[in-house]
Amino acid sequence: MRNGPTLTLVLALALSVVAAPLAADAQQAARLPRIGILPPGPISERAHLWEAFRQGLRDLGYVEGQNITLVFPSAEVRPERLPHLAAELVSLKVDVIVAAATVAVQAAKQATKTIPIVMPVSTDPVGNGLVANLARPGGNITGLSLLSSDLSGKRLELLKTVVPGVSRIAVLSNPTSLTAPLQMREVEVAAQALRVQLQSLEVRGPDDFERVFQAATQGRAGAPLALDDAFVFTHRARIARLAAKSRLPAMYGFREFVEVGGLMSYAANLVDMYRRAATYVDKILNGAKPGELPVEQPTKFELVINLKTAKALGLTIPQSVLSRADEVIQ
């Protein structure tokens, strides 16, 4: 009987030793950083890009469920739903929001002034008012910027080189895009120098694509040029099919268009940019302020050409262009 209190104390100490790690594990699990994901369109159309972001995190030592949690949208992603989805992430008190493309970054910016926002891609974030400047963005937004407006003229030049006889080019754009006017101005400057006429074709919804390609054919456009836009990117396979059906050689921004049958593209590699975005998340989780992290711009651009598509169009790609290509799809 005299050993009762001693035994009780020993058992209590033993239980406390067992319980302490359990409690610590529970606290650690509760403290896992939460990264909110705000894509500009359906996840399924960008799965390879988000996998690249995940790979970037893994390269930095992050393991989902162990030391980090990714929070994806709970509903279908459509442009008009982005403000609601951004507000949802804020209500969940995520530690960082990764918002891709200008339209998603804008929605995230309107939803919070305090939660850090990382951009894997954005077109002209200074011109669109997302950051104060590239070297010192200020506020709660940083990440990577595309040079879509600066590249628009170069793409038109490449298209003219591949289709030298073209005199009228149809420009496919989303008029609701904040970046469309910037890109269009560059295209107009290049068109004047190359002495080609432009036909503006606007797409506001999925039902517009058939109509605009019919308009391009009726307007005797010799080739289409697609401006960079999240909505256009989502429907890249459909656009490539319609271009092929209309027998029009088209120039696109990103290699993903060429991989689904488009003729050629010229831009930075999106997979690389999404992977690099993970480094921003890592720096912020380790105490860096987003407003003090410079916005990076791509330093390498890739020209991708689909020779199978060119052959189907009866088009011979000049050797001068082929020799500059970073990848040729046979």
How do you describe this structure in short?
By secondary structure, the chain is α/β, with parallel strands linked by helices.
List keywords for this structure.
330 residues; alpha/beta; five-stranded parallel sheet; four-stranded mixed sheet; 12 strands; 45% helix; 15% strand; elongated; disordered N terminus
Explain what the structure shows:
The chain is 45% helix and 15% strand. It has helices spanning 4-30, 47-59, 82-91, 101-111, 148-162, 180-194, 208-218, 230-234, 236-245, 255-259, 270-285, 307-312, 319-322, and strands at 34-38, 69-71, 96-99, 117-119, 141-143, 168-173, 197-202, 223-226, 251-252, 264-267, 302-306, 327-329. The strands form 3 sheets. The protein has a 5-stranded parallel β-sheet with strand order 2-1-3-4-5, with helices on both faces. It has a 4-stranded mixed β-sheet with strand order 9-10-11-12. Strands 7-6-8 form a 3-stranded parallel β-sheet, sandwiched between helices. Residues 1-29 have low confidence and may be disordered.
